């Protein structure tokens, strides 16, 4: 009986690193999936900005979608690097919205760069 308990305890301890590894892998997978979605959102923002004359509200709609996905990613991660990348992307999206609201041509490069940093953090 004592040997069975010892074997069960050993098996539990041996499986612990695997379960922790799977949890980390799942979080990385979720972050990666959301990073891909956010990259798609950024592409939609770019397209909307290029066609703002045809549909002025499209930029606001695309930025709203990006903001919701950033909120979702921010809530799912406890990783400081991901949190910093999300906040950087959010700051760039806010700057883009202010620029669009002011009627000036927005500079999309900082938003694209911030999305690239987020992808790197999630996949690296």
TrEMBL record:
Signal peptide span: 1-24
Domain of life from the UniProt record: Bacteria
PROSITE patterns associated with the record: PROKAR_LIPOPROTEIN (PS51257)
Keywords: Signal
Protein name: Secreted protein
Species of provenance: Peterkaempfera bronchialis
